[in-house]
Amino acid sequence: MQTNKRNRSVLKGNHSFSIKRGFMFICMVSLFFSLFCCGSNKKSSDEGGELAFISPQGPSFNADSAYLFCQEQCAFGPRTMNSSAHDKCSEWIMNKFRLFGLEVAPQRAMLTGYDGTQLSACNIMASFRPELSERILLCAHWDSRPWADNDPDSANWHTPIIGANDGASGVAVMLEIARLLQTDSTRLDKGIDFVCFDAEDWGLPTWSDVYSNDDTWALGAQYWAENLPEGYIKARFGILLDMVGGQGAQFWKESASLHYASSIVEKVWTAARTVGFGSYFPNQEGGMITDDHIPINEHAGIPTIDVIPYYSDCEQSSFGPTWHTISDDMEHIDKNTLKAVGQTIVQVLYE
Question: What is the pLDDT of residue 117?
Answer without folding.
Answer: 97
